[in-house]
Amino acid sequence: xxxxxxxxxxxxxxxxxxxHVSAPFLSTFLLVHLSAPLLANVGGSNLSSNAMLxxxxxxxxxxxxxxxxxxxxxxxxxxxxxxxxFAPASKQPRKFTSMLSLTAYAALVFVPIHVFTHRLAxxxxxxxxxxxxxAELDYEFVKTGLSRFPWRSWVLYTGLVASVxxxxxxxxxxxxxxxxxxxxxxxxxxxxxxGAAALPVMLGLWTLSKEPxxxxxxxxxxxxxxxxxxxxxxx
Length: 235
Prior knowledge:
Layout lengths: L2 H57 L2 H25 L12 H22 L18 H10 L1 H31 L6 H23 L7 H12 L7
Helix pairs in contact: 1-2, 1-5, 1-6, 3-5, 4-5, 4-7, 5-6
């Protein structure tokens, strides 16, 4: 037996398990986080903001953000990349063109942009942002982006929702077959599930875009500064 090949097979198996174990944490976060824009369909920005504030109790506390979101995210991404680097010739990873891989790469573009504009930039205490606190950072922020930067916001939100939802559906299909012995869902069924999950979220954003801005003009300008802190919003 080739010792090097055995080491690679063992490493790949461990990395696969790490990827699978971290996935439910990210799926739970996704369910909680996307429920807010989805609820705009029935209650507008007020209900969305309330749902988001409630959801933060899960993913934005000192413990939750570190151990229920960031740690699983780092493990999931790192294990996926490492599997491609260390996979033995006899057990090659999925093709780069597979839907699971393509949506993973797309998410690695859209997720950092979203995190920077919606989580990191608002914490800047310097002018003109002046530290947008959690109580101020509600769905008026999203409405401001849709109003002030419509085409950028729609491209970024659509890309983000599509990539993470399709990736989640593809991943759940793998977990079902690997751990539960379930029959693999067809490509058509997976697309229908992803579409059924993503469409209400996008309709919720469309509903939000039709609402007038209710935040104070000074707050809107601080929101605007948060978005313009990233080059995407300055082109």
